[in-house]
Design brief:
The structure is a homodimer.
Chain A: E1 2-8, H1 12-26, E2 31-34, H2 39-45, H3 51-56, E3 62-67, H4 85-96, E4 98-106, H5 119-122, E5 126-132, E6 144-146, E7 149-157, H6 158-173, E8 178-183, H7 189-205, E9 210-215, H8 216-225, E10 232-235, H9 237-247, E11 260-263, E12 267-269, H10 288-301, H11 305-321, H12 333-343
Parallel strand pairs in A: 1-2, 1-3, 3-12, 5-10, 8-9, 8-10
Antiparallel strand pairs in A: 4-5, 4-11, 6-7, 11-12
The structure holds 3-isopropylmalic acid (2 copies).
Chain lengths: 345, 345
C-alpha cells in the first residue's frame, strides 16, 4: 500500500517524522511518499494545495497530514483567502471526498490529572465525535462580502446528512450503541432537515441504535459538566468544529487528540492540534496525536486493527513513562518517539 | 417607572415571583404589570407573543422574563415553528430591539467547589459575554426547508456589527479594558466583515481598549481550560448562544446566571436557565438567577446601581448560607428568597 505524508507547517514536519518512524516499524511493507501542503506549499509553488500534491493522491491508500498554518501575524494570513494555508487543507478534504471526520476523545487511565475538569468527571470518558466535513457553511458557494454586508449559507441535503449519519451509526454499533445528534432545530430550518433525516435513517436501517437529539448550546454545556453521558456524537460541520475542539480539552492536552477523515476514497489522518509556530523546530513538540493518527490510519485506512492496537498500547505506555512538556513532563519529541518504538511488541 | 413581568412556562412563574418580591423591597415605587409569553400564552391566546403582551410593552421601562418552553415531548414542540414557545421569545427580543445580550460569568468567592473545573481554574473568573441578539442565522429571512434540501443564512451588516461592538467596548471601559472578538474568519466571509468592522470601530473611537480576535473553536477550548484570560467577549448570535451556555458551566450551576438584553428601548432581563419542567410547580427551583436578573434590571434598565449592588450582595450571602438543591444544599425557593430579603440592607 502507498501512503502520502503531508507534513505541512510549524511542528507538522517534526510530529509527522515521529509518526512515520512508528509506521515503518509496524507496517514495514508500506510505501511512503512525502509532499507539500499549506503555507510551505504556497511558498514553494504559489498554491497551498499544488497540482503535484493533488496528483500524488490519485493512487494513495491513505494520507497522513501534519499541520498547516502560521502564527496570527504570519504573512500567509494577509493573502487572499484561497491562497492561505487553511484553504489548502479545505481543498484537500474536498479532493479526497472525506465527509466524515472522526475525533475520539478518551481519557487514558492514570492521566486524569491532566484534565481541567475534576478527576471524577474526567475519569473513563470515551466519546467519539463524528463531524460532517464537506458541507454546511464551509463549502457552500452562496457566500459574499461586499461593502457593508456579508453572508454565508448553511446548507445541507438529505444525501449529505445520511452518509455521515451512517458512519455514526456504524461506529456506535461497535461501541455502546448510543448516538446523540446535535443541531439547533428550535431555530434553524437546516437543523430541522438534519434531525428529520437522521431519525428516518435510524428508523429504516439502524433500529438497534439508541438515538437522541440535543441542541448545540446544551451539548456545549453538558459535554464538559457531564461528559460520561455521551457515546457517539454526530453533527454538522461548524457545530462539529466547535464541539470537537471543546471536547479536546477533556483529556487535558490537544497533543493527545488524533483524527480520521473518511469518505469515498483514501482517508485523511491528522492530529487535531495546530501548527504551534512558537515551538516549531525546537524538537519539543508532543508527537502522540500524530502517532495515534497513524494508528487510526492503520485501523481505518489499511484495515489493520492489530497494528493500530499495537500503536495505541505503546503510546499509552510512553505517555505514562515519558510525558512530554505539554503534559508537565520532560521528554522531548525524540525521547518520546523512542519510548513508543521500544514499547511496540 | 413601569416594569412588565413575563413569567412564562415551567419554573418561570416561581422564580419570577421571587424576583418580584425582592424588586418590590428594593424599588417600592415601581409599577409592575404581569403578562403572558411562551407556551402559556399560546394556550390562552393561540399566540406565543400575543397582541395584549405586545401592547403592554409600549410604555414599559424594562421587562423581566421568567422562562419559556416545555419538555422535549411537550405538545408545543409539535406546533408549526412560529407558534412554538421559543418563537415567542425571539419575537419579543425583536419587538424590543434588544440587540446586545450581556451574560456575566462570575465565580463567587467560596463557591468554586460548585464548578466542574478544578478550583484553581474556576477561582476569580469574571467574564462578560456580549452576544449579538438580533442578527445572523436567527432572523435572516433567507431560509427554507424544501424536500431534501434546507438552508439558513448567516448575514451581518456593518451597522449591526458596530452597535453591538459599541456595547462591548463601553462595558470593557468599566472593567479591565480588554475585548476579545470571536469569529471564524479563516472560513467565513461574514466573519471577515465582523472582524474588519470591530477593528475599525476600535481604531476610530475606542483606542484605549485592548482588542484581540480569536476563532470560535479555539475560544470554546480556552474558555474552559484557561478562563482567566478573558475580560469581555463579543460575538455574533449563534456563536454567542453556544459560548455563553458553555461559559455558564464555569460557576457550576445555570441557576446562577442572569442576563440583560439591551437595545433601542426597554431592556429585557432574564435568567439564562430553561423552564425545567421536571421540577416546575414544586417550589424547589433556585431563583438566584432571576433575582440577579432583577438586579441587572435596576442597574441597566432603571439606572439604579445602588439597588443593583444591594441585590448582588444579598444574593451572595444567601447563596453561602442557604444553598438551594441544585447547589447541593437544602433550601427551597421560599427559604432562599426569604434569606435574600432579610440580607438586604
Ligand atoms: C483550520 C480550519 C479551517 C479547520 C476547520 O475549521 O475545519 C480547523 O479548525 C479544524 O477543525 O480542522
Ligand atoms: C430558546 C432559544 C431560541 C434561545 C436562543 O438560542 O437564543 C436560548 O437558547 C437562549 O440562549 O436564550
Amino acid at each position: 500500500p502507498k501512503i502520502v505524508t503531508l507534513p505541512g507547517d510549524g511542528i507538522g514536519p517534526e510530529v509527522t517524522a515521529a509518526a512515520v518512524a512508528v509506521l515503518r516499524e509496524v507496517a514495514p511493507d508500506v510505501t511512503i511518499e512525502e509532499h507539500l501542503i499549506g503555507g510551505i506549499a504556497y511558498d514553494t509553488h504559489g498554491d497551498p494545495f499544488p497540482q503535484v500534491t493533488r496528483d500524488a493522491l490519485k493512487d494513495a491508500d491513505a494520507v497522513l497530514l501534519g499541520t498547516v498554518g502560521g502564527a496570527q501575524d504570519s504573512a500567509w494570513n494577509l493573502l487572499p483567502r484561497h491562497l492561505r494555508p487553511e484553504s489548502g487543507l479545505l481543498a484537500l478534504r474536498k479532493a479526497l471526498g472525506c465527509y466524515a471526520n472522526l475525533r475520539p476523545v478518551r481519557v487514558q487511565p492514570g492521566l486524569e490529572y491532566l484534565s481541567p475538569l475534576k478527576a471524577e468527571l474526567a475519569r473513563g470518558v470515551d466519546i467519539l465525535i463524528v463531524r460532517e466535513l464537506l458541507g454546511g457553511v464551509y463549502f457552500d458557494g452562496d457566500r459574499k462580502i461586499d461593502g457593508d454586508t456579508a453572508y454565508n449559507t448553511m446548507r445541507y441535503t438529505t444525501p449529505e446528512v445520511e452518509r455521515v449519519a451512517r458512519v455514526a451509526f456504524w461506529a456506535a454499533e461497535q461501541r455502546k450503541g448510543r448516538v446523540t445528534s446535535v443541531d439547533k432545530a428550535n431555530v434553524l430550518e437546516v437543523s430541522e432537515l438534519w434531525r428529520r433525516d437522521v431519525t428516518a435513517l435510524r428508523d429504516r436501517e439502524y433500529r438497534g441504535i439508541h438515538l437522541n437529539h440535543e441542541y448545540v448550546d446544551s451539548v456545549a454545556m453538558l459535554i464538559v459538566s457531564d461528559p460520561s453521558r455521551y457515546d457517539v456524537i454526530v453533527t454538522e460541520n461548524l457545530f462539529g468544529d466547535i464541539l470537537s475542539d471543546l471536547a479536546a480539552v477533556i483529556p487535558g492536552s490537544l497533543g493527545l487528540m488524533p483524527s480520521a477523515s473518511l469518505g469515498d476514497g483514501a482517508g485523511l489522518f491528522e492530529p487535531i492540534h495546530g501548527s504551534a509556530p512558537d515551538i516549531a523546530g525546537k524538537g519539543v513538540a508532543n508527537p502522540a496525536a500524530a502517532i495515534m493518527s497513524a494508528g487510526m490510519l492503520l485501523r481505518h485506512g489499511l484495515k489493520r486493527p492489530e497494528g493500530a492496537n499495537q500503536i495505541d498500547r505503546a503510546v499509552a505506555l510512553a505517555l505514562r513513562e515519558h510525558p512530554t512538556r505539554d503534559l508537565g513532563g520532560k521528554a522531548d519529541t525524540q525521547t518520546f518517539t523512542r519510548a513508543v518504538l521500544s514499547a511496540l511488541e
